[in-house]
Write a structure and sequence with these properties.
The complex is a heterodimer of chains A (about 350) and B (about 270). The longest helix of chain A has 20 residues. Chain A contains 10 helices and 12 strands. The mean pLDDT of chain A is about 95. Chain A has one domain. In chain A, helix 5 packs across helix 8 and helix 5 packs across helix 10. By secondary structure, chain B is an alpha/beta fold. Chain B folds into 2 domains: about 120 residues, no CATH class; about 110 residues, no CATH class. The chains are: A alpha+beta (about 350), B alpha/beta (about 270). Chains A and B meet through helix 7, strand 11, strand 12 and helix 9 of A and strand 2, helix 2, helix 7 and helix 9 of B.
């Protein structure tokens, strides 16, 4: 059962100070060069209260490039292997949108599916999320189509919801959240009963995710995917801004003396993603790659991992250079049971 | 706009073309590429000042080519792309018809010669803001410039939206994707990002039509188009030849002329 507090707006600065004092880095959405980035937050004034960052906060637990191991050639067949320990600096993500907070679960189910990924887990264990309920949304948002809502506490350690009179209700959801409250007890006042919160953003449901999953089962060979993906140019913008896209590439960078093994973000939208050494490509057409993106998130994830591979944040739609709007495409797929 | 719609209607109804590549309404105020294949869908076409993306990138895509003869709604940079692609033997004249939007009017251009003539009448200077930024960068010291680009490219995630949106980046196998040998680090670290953008700029020198679509495509707002613009400007200055000016030009960077002004090359 979660605990509820109120926190006056004036105390948020104190909370941020105490978090920094405890040795944690505090990251959150901030405007940098005209765009919202997840970056260092020094004061509450830095935090952007509405709108989505372009790139998600995923990089905090799954960086765009990370070193997994190093090796040295020591003559003959001797190779010295050096394990790399994860850099997992204690981190607080402050003012994150609730959808992004939920996204960490979709990463977790993959990174702990069979083997336990020590890099991801070390970072995740050291990351605490203080999310901020959305009171505004845009045409790309579709959390409500996926069974969530703009003030969904799931995935957050603490969820802040703005009060009409100023300040916030703080819903402390997890033990990690409680540990942060303990660092700045004076900022939190226990709340019992109702609170007069600003109404959450209105996000009309465009489709139903369960219904979509059922429809997808019969639409694998539909002409819909070719139709929707005609304008797709096959870049990786959607996957790289996505908070749940988890695919990665393993790359060795080496010279004659030493080398390192890196893990880097990858995208199923790119032609080379499934290109075999033989030259054969099982997903040779952009329509097959687009279908894979949709099915992976909305059919295979729920089937195999018990969760959706999407949180409805809409970052992919906003980042797409050719305006592939995921919400519209999914709504179309959910509607068109017979097309093709 | 009505003139474009009636032209598109006529072409599709007569079977002169199988697809009209144009702009349609997108999310919010956005415009998005659309592919009109039936006369009934002609109403979806939109032409206004928000239609800036260079659609020529679709002319070399296999999925679009298989649709049949293409008409393309072409802003001036699209026309230049068509000429450059033709010069590089990537387009056949009989497969393409340009519906040029010049000063608000629609003109049907069926031959490369006609396109060349039309392009010659349109100024091709880059926008004022871009010119200002290039002047500012040019005036910087090497270390200042290096710091500027290190900052900008630090945001790059190597999604390749710039490459995928560029009409001139049509290679089936890009050097970036080559791993035997691996010329450029795949990972999006400082070196990998720098080498990718430098190589792309060099490869666009003398071929860039200055549409700026790569810069617009970048989700994190890196002005990558300034790199290709600068490379293009340099070739124009050194060799007096413009990317996208003609379907008959040889590529300046791979052509030897006995009267080259540099003595070392003779």
């Amino acid at each position: 059962m979660s605990e509820r507090y109120t926190i006056p707006e004036a105390s948020v600065g104190y909370l941020l100070q105490e978090l920094a004092k405890s040795g944690r880095r505090v990251l959150g959405p901030k405007v940098v060069a005209g765009r919202i980035e997840i970056t260092n937050i020094k004061s509450f004034a830095d935090v952007v209260k509405h709108g989505q960052s372009v790139v998600s906060a995923k990089g905090v637990v799954f960086p765009k490039v990370e070193r997994l191991l190093r090796y040295r050639f020591e003559g003959g067949k001797n190779i010295a292997l050096d394990d790399v320990e994860p850099q997992a600096h204690p981190t607080v993500l402050f003012g994150l949108r609730p959808c992004e907070a939920r996204a960490f679960h979709a990463l977790d189910v993959v990174f702990n599916w069979d083997s336990k990924d020590k890099f991801f887990n070390a970072r995740m264990a050291n990351t605490t999320v203080i999310a901020l309920s959305c009171t505004q949304a845009d045409e790309s948002c579709f959390c409500t189509s996926l069974g969530s809502r703009p003030d969904d506490p799931q995935g957050s350690d603490i969820l802040l919801s703005p009060l009409n009179a100023g300040g916030f209700v703080a819903e402390v959801v997890t033990e990690k959240g409680k540990a942060l409250v303990a660092l700045a007890n004076d900022a939190f006042q226990p709340l019992s009963g109702q609170a007069d919160v600003v109404p959450p953003a209105t996000v009309a449901a465009a489709f139903d995710a369960k219904d979509l999953q059922q429809k997808l089962a019969a639409q694998f060979d539909s002409a819909l995917w070719a139709e929707q993906s005609l304008r797709c140019v096959g870049c990786g913008a959607c996957a790289f801004v996505c908070p749940t896209c988890v695919c990665f590439d393993i790359q060795d960078e080496a010279d004659t003396k030493q080398g390192q093994r890196l893990r880097a973000w990858d995208s199923c939208g790119m032609r080379i993603f499934t290109l075999h050494a033989s030259g054969h490509n099982p997903r040779d057409k952009q329509s097959q790659r687009w279908r894979q993106r949709v099915y992976h998130k909305f059919a295979y994830y729920p089937e195999r991992l018990g969760t959706l591979g999407c949180v409805g944040c809409g970052k992919c739609s906003r980042a797409c250079p050719v305006d592939m709007n995921l919400k519209q495409h999914l709504a179309q797929a959910a509607k068109s049971a017979t097309l093709g | 706009m009505e003139a474009l719609k009636s032209k598109a209607q006529e072409l599709l109804a007569a079977g002169t073309v199988k697809v009209v590549i144009g702009y349609g309404k997108g999310t919010g105020e956005n415009r998005r590429p659309i592919f009109v294949r039936t006369a009934e869908r002609v109403a979806d076409l939109v032409v206004d000042t928000a239609c800036t993306q260079n659609l020529a990138t679709y002319l070399t895509k296999a999925e679009i080519r298989t649709l049949g003869r293409m008409a393309i709604v072409a802003v001036p940079s699209t026309l230049r792309s068509i000429l450059q692609l033709a010069a590089e033997k990537q387009l056949r004249e009989e497969n393409i018809l340009a519906l040029a939007i010049i000063d608000g009017a629609v003109r049907e251009l069926a031959t490369f010669d006609a396109i060349e003539e039309a392009v010659a009448t349109v100024p091709d200077a880059m926008g004022e803001a871009d010119q200002k930024m290039i002047d500012k960068l040019t005036a910087m010291s090497v270390s200042e410039r290096r710091a500027f680009w290190a900052g900008e490219l630090g945001r790059c995630v190597k999604c390749y939206a710039c490459r995928s949106s560029c009409p001139m980046c049509y290679c089936e196998r890009c050097t970036m994707d080559c791993n035997r040998p691996q010329w450029i680090p795949v990972a999006s670290h400082a070196l990998g990002n720098l080498e990718y953008h430098m190589v792309r700029a060099m490869h666009l020198a003398g071929r860039c039509v200055q549409c700026g679509t790569c810069g617009t495509a970048c989700p994190v707002g890196i002005p990558v188009h300034l790199l290709t613009f600068f490379a293009e400007q340099t070739v124009r200055r050194q060799f007096g030849q413009k990317g996208g000016a003609s379907a008959k030009l040889d590529y300046a960077m791979s052509t030897f002329k006995p009267d080259d002004k540099e003595t070392f090359i003779r």
